[in-house]
Write a structure and sequence with these properties.
Rossmann fold, Topoisomerase I, domain 2, Topoisomerase I, domain 3, 7-stranded antiparallel sheet, 6-stranded antiparallel β-barrel, globular
């Protein structure tokens, strides 16, 4: 039998396809890009038409060698990297390095990883799409030009190690400009007045809407008190009752951006976390005897198109599970954005009959939460609208001084429709009104004035920033998660609860980039670049023309900033303070630990002065001795949180995890509970004997008493729980907290 080689990107995907294909097929993973631009130089020959200088990615030489050997033995090589521009570029470079032969190397596109989908793709292999490759190449070179030519300017003017990205810097600009709006905002006082009335039936509230036939605008307490007193004396009657039916249509199925937004709002997932979990669901989950199964379609998409077979399947599911009255007479259709990739589908379950409950035991908690969200959204998109009965009541209040207009609204769910399975954050609040009739007299029970102040626009969350980027046409499905990740890792932006707040370093970098490169980091210009990349893919524009149009004005800006960089640095760094040692002016400098003052006479004078920010890693003395040299151990902060280090560093480089004074409760372990931090800077607690002991807790443990285990450690049963809500770390039983709460 002829040998067939299938090349995918990840080992998980390779494992899933390997079980589907069986004998006669070898499936290997490239581990992503094998060929890329070099990491330590520009790698683009601008003078020769922006010719890229590709190299083998460091550490991937062995993988490439194995693929070359496997391809030489195969009669046919199928390139099955992800079905997008980046996947097309990966496939193209692999084919070139393996000795590209149009008859031997074929491209297959897997929008879902199921046995049937894989067999269909193998029966209909494609040629490599060079237009997609060129579009991806243009994007890669654009990003490289900005990153490698602007970042060194930041190094010289602000500090080493900073980065400027073509799209990430525009996202940073949005966050910084929103912060400026918030700081400049001046709150305005206003008042609302609600009158509680009673007719023949139950009482209800109505809000003051008009005053003497004009919109009621109450600006201060004195005005509000006068109106309140008069409303108490007024006579009320129902002027108009309007009853109508309101329909709420189901939302479209998920695309990448809407999935990231909903996962952020509902599940508290970051964009990168959402995409990582979605990748797992797409590539295949082990389903016992059935083997690995891809549970969702490809998760990087901006199209809401749905496969006809999938729509027929979900319509049958709805009719069987909910009844015919929940099923529209014709399938619901949704319109994709103009820029959406036509071949792509929306994100949906590969088989809607795999309800979340049937997958318990196969999915992790994170996988289950995201799958439940995707599955419910897809089912909901093919259901009938929700129907509400709404009532709008206009009420007249009349006193000897004034005529008032009041409004009361009520809403009651008449038919749930898609709400039977999927409720969004913006659903109608069901607040029915009691029955009232036109002309009916109403008795005032209470008049309640309330003071309010206008509020500034909220800070962006990951969800709202993705929505804003998408609405402006900035970025594409594959870029949102990396953008958000990079601006936080670079310490340009911090996350406070769920809000994104610019850090001082981020503000400095943003102001510098926007003032010196106004075109490059302009919202409209960045969106236009995305459109031009789309034109390259659609063969309407050459990739080199896109780069040429961008580079000429960009080069002029670079040259100007290079000429003026010393003056820019002086303006950025100047202060009114002189050096206490030599009398020369002190200037602002940045280090990895923050901002500080330094003598402008450096290196002759090395005087430094704190600006209230750390200049060295924070140290905290302890009574513990270094096991290597016997010196005192100190607490320091590093990339992954606090840890113990020898005070004699760098002579002695001994370090230890930071214990919290509690022993691991698992029998025979003997380890200490230590504080650690994830890459996302979230603190957690685990045993010092990891990986032998895998005890872990997101909440800080305390000494407690378990009715099953006896003396052990406990943790809050949920974040923010009271002291009575603790569970045992060993067996999960509800526990009592010991009197010694100092360990909490």
């Amino acid at each position: 039998m002829a040998e067939q080689l299938v090349i995918v990107e990840s080992p998980t995907k390779a494992k899933t396809l390997g079980k589907y294909l069986g004998k006669g097929y070898t499936v290997k993973a490239s581990m992503g890009h094998l060929i890329d631009l070099p990491t330590k130089e520009l790698g683009v020959d601008i003078a020769k038409g922006f010719a890229p200088q590709y190299v083998v990615v460091k550490g991937r030489e062995k993988i490439l060698k194995e693929l070359v050997s496997a391809a030489a033995k195969a009669d046919q090589v199928f390139l099955a990297s992800d079905p997008d521009r980046e996947g097309e570029a990966i496939a193209f470079h692999i084919a070139n390095r393996l000795g590209r032969d149009g008859r031997k190397f074929r491209r297959i596109l897997l929008y879902e990883i199921t046995r049937e989908a894989v067999q269909r793709a193998l029966k209909d292999p494609q040629e490599l799409d060079l237009a997609k490759v060129e579009a991806q190449q243009a994007r890669r070179i654009l990003d490289r030009l900005v990153g490698y030519l602007v970042s060194p300017i930041l190094w010289k003017i602000v500090r080493r190690g900073l980065s400027a990205g073509r799209v990430q810097s525009v996202a940073l600009r949005l966050i910084c400009e929103r912060e400026k709006e918030i700081l400049a905002f001046v709150p305005q006082e206003y008042w609302t007045i609600e009158v509680f009335l009673k007719g023949e039936k139950d009482p209800f509230g109505a809000r003051l809407a008009t005053l003497g036939g004009k919109v009621a605008e109450i600006r201060n307490q004195e005005q509000a008190q006068g109106i309140t007193e008069d409303l108490r004396k007024a006579a009320y009657r129902v002027e108009e009752v309007e009853k109508k039916e309101k329909r709420r249509n189901p939302p479209p199925p998920f695309i990448t951006s809407t999935m990231q937004q909903e996962a952020s709002k509902r599940l508290g997932f970051s964009a990168s976390r959402t995409m990582a979990v979605a990748q797992q669901l797409y590539e295949g989950i082990e389903m016992g005897a059935e083997g690995p199964v891809g549970l969702i379609t490809y998760m990087r998409t901006d199209a809401v198109r749905m496969n006809e077979d999938a729509v027929l399947q979900v319509r049958k599911y709805i009719a069987d599970q909910f009844g015919e009255n929940y099923l529209p007479s014709e399938p619901n259709t949704y319109r994709s954005r103009k820029t959406a990739q036509g071949a792509h589908e929306a994100i949906r379950p590969t088989d809607v009959r795999r309800a979340p409950d049937a997958l318990k035991g196969h999915l992790s908690k994170e996988q289950m939460k995201l799958y439940q969200l995707i599955w419910a959204r897809f089912v909901a998109c093919q259901m009938n609208p929700a129907i509400y009965d709404t009532v709008n009541v206009k009420i007249q209040g009349k006193s000897s001084k004034e005529t008032y207009g009041l409004k009361a609204t009520g809403s009651a769910l008449k038919f749930p429709g898609f709400l039977a399975i999927y409720r969004g954050d913006e659903e109608e609040r069901e607040e029915p009104l009691p029955e009232v009739k036109e002309g009916e007299a109403l008795k005032p029970l209470k008049v309640e004035p309330k003071q309010h102040f206008t509020e500034p626009p909220p800070r962006y969350t990951e969800a709202s920033l993705i929505k804003e980027l998408e609405s402006r046409g900035i970025g594409r499905p594959s870029t949102y998660a990396p953008i958000l990740s990079v601006i936080q890792k670079r310490d340009y932006v911090s996350k406070e609860k769920s809000a994104l707040k610019p850090m001082e370093l981020g503000t400095v970098v943003n102001d510098l980039l926007v003032s010196r490169f106004p075109d490059t980091f302009d919202y409209g210009f960045t969106a236009e670049m995305e459109e031009e990349l789309d034109k390259v893919e659609e063969r309407e524009m050459g990739w080199q023309k896109v780069l040429h149009n961008f580079y000429q004005p960009f080069k002029a800006r670079l040259e100007k900033v290079e000429r003026e960089k010393q003056a820019i640095q002086r303006d950025l760094a100047k202060t009114q303070e002189n050096c206490a040692l030599c009398g020369k002016p002190m200037v602002v400098r940045w280090s990895r630990y923050g901002k500080f003052l330094a003598c402008s006479g450096y290196p002759k004078c090395k005087n430094l002065k704190s600006l209230g920010e750390r200049q060295e890693p924070e140290e905290e003395k302890t009574e513990e001795k270094c096991p290597t040299c016997g010196a005192e151990m100190v607490v320091r902060k590093g990339r992954f949180g606090r840890f113990l280090a020898c005070s004699k560093y760098p002579k002695c480089k001994t370090t230890k995890p930071l214990g919290i004074g509690l022993k691991c409760p698992r029998p025979g372990c003997g380890g200490d509970i230590v504080e650690k931090r994830t890459k996302a800077r979230r603190t957690f607690y685990s045993c010092s004997n990891y990986p032998k002991c895998k005890l872990v807790s997101w909440e800080r443990p305390a000494q407690g008493k378990c009715p099953r285990c006896g003396e052990t450690l406990v943790k809050p049963s949920r974040k923010g729980s009271t002291e009575s809500s603790w569970i045992c770390l060993v067996c999960g039983e509800p526990s009592e907290l010991k009197v010694n709460s100092g360990t909490i």
